[in-house]
Amino acid sequence: MRLSIDHHSLYSFSEPQARVVQLLRVTPGDYAAQTVIDWRIDVNCDARLRTGRDGYGNATTMLYVDGPVTHLALTVRGEVLTEDMAGVVKGVTEPLPPLFYTRTTPLTAPDAATVALTRSVGGSDPLERAHALNTMVGGAIRIHGGRGRGRVPAEVL
Questions:
Q1: End-to-end CA distance of the chain
Q2: Going along the chain, which residue ranges are E strands?
Q3: 84 Cβ neighbours under 8 A, 6+ residues apart
Q4: Which of 61, 85, 125, 132 could lock 121 by a disulfide, CB 3.0 to 4.6 Å apart?
Q5: How far is the C-alpha of 1 from the C-alpha of 88, rounded, in Å?
Q6: What is the rounded CA–CA span in Å between residue 153 and residue 64?
Q7: pLDDT band at 146 (very low <50, low <70, confident <90, very high)
């Protein structure tokens, strides 16, 4: 499937900003089931863009704009070829071992309700359980268009 992306973000500041610095995570990567054909980030003013990678191996772009800045328009456009792999990502270079993603910290430890929720999903193997949990979460979250409303707490599930 060929996807055409055309994403626009407009930032308006109540007071002119002396400088704007923002980390952008808007660039997809190539892997076994996805090929980026074309990708472009445009800004409506004189800006510096520096590409890099975060600690997880994801593409990042740092945006630097000298002020005064009252408005900033960001446009991301591109084309990506994808194929359905049933949610399985293959062919990605992972800088961290898989067990890294299963650890908990004081800030990420699940509460009793979250543990009960994850145990309630069916499935005979980890991939099947992950798909069932993904379906459950997707059915419980409601997305409303318009202005951003911040993060939705996990308790709504």
A1: 32
A2: 2-24, 34-43, 48-53, 59-82
A3: 1, 33
A4: 132
A5: 16
A6: 31
A7: low
Q: Which two tokens stand for residue 91?
A: 């062919």
Q: Is the pTM of this model over 0.85?
A: no
Yes or no: say if 28 and 107 are a contact pair by the CB < 8 Å rule.
no
Q: What is 1-83's CATH number, 2.60.40, 1.10.260, 1.25.40, 3.40.1710?
A: 2.60.40
Asked if residues 71 and 15 have their Cβ atoms less than 8 Å apart, the reply is no
E strands, 25-118, where?
A: 34-43, 48-53, 59-82
Do the beta carbons of residue 62 and residue 20 sit within 8 Å? no
Contact 79, 5 (CB under 8 A): yes
| Cα–Cα nearest to 61, from 30, 32, 29, 101 | 29
Q: Where are the domains of the chain?
A: 1-83, 96-142
> How many CB atoms sit inside 10 A of residue 35's CB?
15
50: closest CA among 18, 24, 30, 76?
Answer: 24
